[in-house]
Amino acid sequence: MKKYFNLPIIALVLFISGCNNEKKQSSDSNNADVTVTAGGQENVKDDVSQKDVVKVAIGSPDHTTLVAAVKQAELVTALSNAGPFTVFAPTNAAFDKLPAGTVDGLMKDDKKPDLQDILQYHVTTSALKAEFFTDGMNIGMVNGGNVTVSVKDGKIMLNGTATIVASVPASNGMVHVIDAVLLPRLNDSSFVERF
Amino acid sequence: MKLPSHKSVLLTGVAVIGLLLLQGCKPRGAGSVAGGDASKAYVAPGKYDEFYNFVSGGFSGQMSVYGIPSGRLFRVIPVFSVDPEKGYGYSEETKAMLNTSHGFVPWDDLHHPALSVTNGEHDGRWAFGNANNTPRIARIDLKTFRTAEIIEIPNSGGNHSSPFITENSEYVVAGTRFSVPMGDKVDVPISTYKENFKGTVSFISVDPNNGGMKIAFQIQTPGVNYDLARAGKGKSHGWMFFSCYNSEQANTLLEVNASQKDKDFIMAVNWKKAEEYVKAGKGVKKSVKYAHNVYDESKHMATSTIENEVLMLDPKDCPDMVYYMPCPKSPHGCDTDPTGEYIVGSGKLAAVIPVFSFTKIQEAIAAKNYDGNYEGIPVLKYEAVLHGEVQKPGLGPLHTEFDANGNAYTSFFVSSEIVKWNVKDLKVLDRVPTYYSIGHLCVPGGPTKKPHGKYVIAYNKITKDRYLPTGPELTQSAQLYTIDGDKMKLILDFPTIGEPHYAEAIPADLVMKNSTKIYKIEENKNPWAALGDNNARVERKGNEVHVYMTSIRSHFTPDNIEGVKLGDVVYFHVTNLEQDWDVPHGFAIKGANNAELLIMPGETQTLAWKPDRVGVFPMYCTDFCSALHQEMQGYVRVSPAGANVPLTFSTGKTAPAPGSAEKKDTAKPK
Questions:
Q1: B625 touching A (Cβ < 8 Å)
Q2: Average pLDDT, chain B
Q3: Residue A36: its chain B contacts at CB < 8 A?
Q4: Chain A partners of B621 at a C-beta cutoff of 8 Å?
Q5: What are the mean pLDDT values of chain A's consecutive 10-residue runs (195 residues total)?
Q6: Are B603 and B576 in contact (CB under 8 A)?
Q7: Number of domains composing chain B
Q8: Range of the domain at A169
Q9: Domain that holds residue B623
Q10: Same domain for A47 and A11
Q11: Are residues A135 and A100 in the same domain?
Q12: Separation in Å, CA of A7 to nearest CA in chain B
């Protein structure tokens, strides 16, 4: 008699799994698995369109550090979207100029917010061609900070420390290659020391 | 020892309860009444449908594209009607698409798509559609999902029996619904129909390389109404079958007067024979006037040419080319099965469905087994060409589609149902109701040599209580049924645009792989294109001001324009410099009497604007393109006629210093 006692529970289990099975079967028949793909537009298969800012960076051998950092900071999806973006892209050599261990430190998982902060200081939501920059111009960056532009004799400098050495148009904005890493909160002397 | 038997009792009990409970999983309501399984129509987010469904928009004049089985609407392709949303028929580049011998015609009534075929199977290249009112055929390029070409049909009074396609897309056809007086003698009393009115069927050749259409020849026939058509295939390749009604030749109250005879006709045309007559010079050149409009994809621009001549074949001079087969009671649908052996006629008022045999037709022709003639055209004996009749199939048969297993699916308007029957033994196998009053129906690949089966879709005229009410005008609908079992099962009900008449469904992989993502900017040959911001400029030519404008996230170049005067016509030639899939830009300016532009990546489109007052007019991008879309705007200053404001333009130029020359150019008429 004890065994019969469990019958409604077993039936209920069957009921639930019965519904699930039904759903799964029909899903299979439409080749429609209910799986959520991670990420966003970076997964779009498209060999025709111009490259976006992320793909431009990925395609550059001088930007492997930046690309690794963008991935670690989980910014690939945002930067693959419609933008428009201007990315100031420090070269590997620019990262190498930082105090020893800074990059390695930033790449640690517990420093992800700091890495995001520093990378977002290199991005503005506007597609700025080189000729748009004017001397003394202020640019509001994605992290909330500002970058000051100086233009002297055709040379464009940012915060007086980084020079634009090349400009590459991308589908969703502009990539300006720079020779130094921009450091947010310039007046905060503790920033670099934190790493 | 008792345990095993207890177990089996328990398992049986569980199974019974489980089954009972499983019934509870099914949806309730009409779906479950129809034995529905809605999950079969479910396509998960991010997943693709199995078929594209090209559905005529009827009185919307457009063609819509749905996914099957989900019923999701992907796109409405503007074809015969203007579409302010896309600027179609409003932009200077597209206006010519809607040119006709009657001038610009902004609307029509699209009833039937026909997808291109190779060897009788869908090839995914083009969709054709007919204009029912001002007779035309359009070709839509399935790479771009845009109307690429429209050709007007002369000597036609309404292009309903169209654009059905031959086995290798050699021809699409156009049979006139209304017979009309033609040639020099057209100002005649309507009551002289029998004497003066003629019918025509046209064969429009399709260039196998680029799809280009050309009226190869027309056949002049007695004055009747041509309704629908289908090409032969396989063994009947080389023939075309047209249904026709009003063999009574009534010119008024057809509701009564065209239903007098027991039988009207299906006209069988041996078009290979017609080709021989054309080659032999039997055609007579007739003076006509019709427009031929072609959209040049590299120029992003349509041109319209008026043609003046068409080649006419008269069956009197061309024996063995045209035959009539009697068919009961005003036949509507005229459908050939996948083998090409059987031709199904659907008399709207008939109590049976006659099925004709191509083999028997050939035998009857060889034996001259005629039942007299109709205005000189031999009429084949009904019994001699009949394979058989489907008895008591339903009321008001209209159209028939086929699966790959020898079954036919016929729609019945009057009894509002789909009836499945076997083509060979003519036995009715199943019937399901539609909600309500079905017209056409569609089986994926149903008109081809290789139907894909799986579903039949009903296109219904009346929906009454099927959806939330929207006042007196309600949506029309499509209903999806599975046909892979013995029984048809309703699984989905979805609203449609306009009025859906015929539709075709094609496996997605035949089309999606060819889909254009962007127009390459380096291939842009539009004469008004500004290929790069550096080429953006404003030029005056008399009272025309041409703005060669570029758009890219997130600005126009130029975005400040001055020096336009009242009386000018401003042409905004906007080039979208984006080279990124799915990033169109729009363009609109206040007070424009036409529409917006919607410009695809790499494309140039032009909007003409005639300012009506002095002032500063805002313009902006209408398609949310980026985070700074709302910043994508500009101004045009309009000054009085004769003002001395110089023509200037800029982007990113900040205000001049106070007291500078530019500041002083306030508008003063000279």
A1: yes
A2: 93
A3: 46
A4: none
A5: 42 41 40 58 93 97 97 96 96 97 96 96 96 94 96 95 97 97 67 48
A6: yes
A7: 2
A8: 41-193
A9: 521-664
A10: no
A11: yes
A12: 7
